[in-house]
Write a structure and sequence with these properties.
This protein is mostly helical. It has two domains: about 60 residues; about 130 residues, no CATH class. Helices cover about 70% and strands about 0% of the residues. The longest helix is centred in the C-terminal third of the chain and has 26 residues.
Length: about 180
């Protein structure tokens, strides 16, 4: 569990920096923008590596039995997650109605996985990402996050949906190989 927690602290800890503008500004002022971004990426990758290493090695400590319908609910939610993640990075109309598609996608991903996994390591991993997503949305809203105002074509929206669904299909198919657990149990 130590590797997993260390990875979570590194990954989510470094992702907290942008929410503390004064501290971030001091670091950028001291090191420069690109060295700051490079260090940010390096710490993020290190945290992710520790999570990937630590999660499957954590002792399975059951906390609750997931409900029988949880896998079906997760399968229904996950296509939306992938669409929202794609929507965060390319022009689309979803951003005219939702300020934080990436964070909303991460929150839905975390909740879907919490529903299907009632063990301590899963609660640490997915619960940590859920709490971070909620905090990051709150923080961005306090700093004045706005909806997009530019209307884009239906084709742009269709491309977002198609890319999200393709991503979902690939991860669904390869989930066991990628993450050590079948998506459908």
């Amino acid at each position: 569990m130590g590797w997993l927690i260390s990875g979570m602290v590194l990954l989510l800890g470094v992702h907290m920096l942008p929410h503390f503008q004064t501290l971030r500004g001091q670091l950028v002022g001291r090191f420069g923008l690109w060295p700051y971004k490079g260090l940010f990426a390096l710490v993020s990758l290190g945290g992710l590596a520790l999570i990937v290493y630590g999660f499957p090695r954590a002792d399975v400590v059951p906390l609750w039995n997931p409900p029988s319908w949880s896998s079906i609910a997760a399968l229904a939610v996950m296509p939306v997650v992938f669409i929202l993640i794609v929507a965060a990075y390319v022009p689309n109309n979803i951003r005219r109605f939702m300020r934080h598609p990436m964070l909303t996608g991460v929150l839905l991903w975390a909740v879907a996985h919490l529903l299907t996994s009632g063990d301590q390591a899963s609660v640490t991993l997915f619960g940590g990402f859920a709490v971070y997503s909620l905090f990051a949305m709150w923080s961005a809203n306090r700093r004045g996050a706005r909806l997009a105002d530019r209307v884009v074509t239906f084709g742009a929206d269709a491309a977002v949906v198609i890319a999200g669904l393709v991503g979902y299909a690939v991860v669904l198919y390869a989930h066991a190989e990628l993450f050590g657990a079948a998506a459908v149990r």
